[in-house]
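W.,

You were right to be curious about this one. When I first looked at the sequence I had no strong expectations either way, so I just let the prediction run and decided to look at it fresh. Below is the sequence, 359 residues in total, followed by the output.
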Amino acid sequence: MDTTIRSCLLVLTFIAVTASFYYMRDLITPFALAIFIWLIIDTFARWMDGLSSKFPYWLALTVAILTVVASIVGIILIIADTAESVVGQAPRYGKRLDEIFHWVGGLIGNEDLSIDSFIASLELEDKMRSGLAGFAGSVQGVLSNLATIAIYVAFLFAAQSSFPKKMDDLFPDKSGRSQAAKVFARIRTSIEKYIGVQTIISLMQTVISYAIMAALGLENALFWALVIFILNYIPIVGGLAAVALPVAFGLVQFETLTPIIILAGGLFGAQFIIGNTIQPKMMGDSMNLSALVVVLSLTLWYALWGGVGAFLSAPLTVIIMIILAQFPTTRWIAVLLSADGQPDMDDTGKKKKAATPSM
């Protein structure tokens, strides 16, 4: 087939797939989250199972499921308690915001500056309302889909034992079956390592950040620790937001700059040190995505699936890169997505010999 025709077909396929992901997001996102949770539970269970031969898989799986369920319930309780606290303290926070804007107004020569006049001058009210509505809608959507997600997870575990048989039926040819098994193993290894490393890194940053916030007396420190833990799963932007949001809340709570500066320095220091020393060594080549691709994929998946897309952007892009690398027609796309031009890695994470990209 002519190169131009193939290129046009690739573009049309990309548009069709992207449109399908967008218009079917209400159906796809719960299943995507279910797969993510299934991998977390299964990885945790197999890790515990490997610790001792006397620890059977079914027991490890039970412990893993109970741990995940308890974590989800805990998250819901923390969010509910924080929402109640914020509503109760809303008048005090509003008064403090007015004080901050009056202070800024005095510096710039606008004595009448207030939070209301600032929002009105920039016409931010509708945008803020829309943004908050979108965020609340994402949270409500995830919570309302918890039952659906739980059913998907249960059926994934029920169907897990039949996966090898289905692989044999899908790929009767031995060589094709072997290649498909390597691709699936590569995908699973990458996602499992990403989940494991991100969870450990997020826990480290959360514990350090919580200690700093609690020591400074930041209100709702447990909630902000939860926010930091979740946001650290979102590449690049999540780490920045994990620092900015608690500091912005600190500006409203604290009346002097000293605790705010200490808070900002401590949170940023924890993110910077862990993100630039421990995380790269632990992550290694499991993702192998270009930094630019990480940012672009974050933007694309957020536009398609909202907060869920941002949360899953990195593993979803890795899956796409690995699959595209298996076909000569699309391999060049995988090369562009990869960090080093070598998207092929076996199930142990070892780089393969680079192949020549082809249209």
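Here's what jumped out at me. The longest helix spans residues 57-108. And, maybe more interesting for your project: Residues 176-283 form one domain.

Coffee later to discuss?

I.
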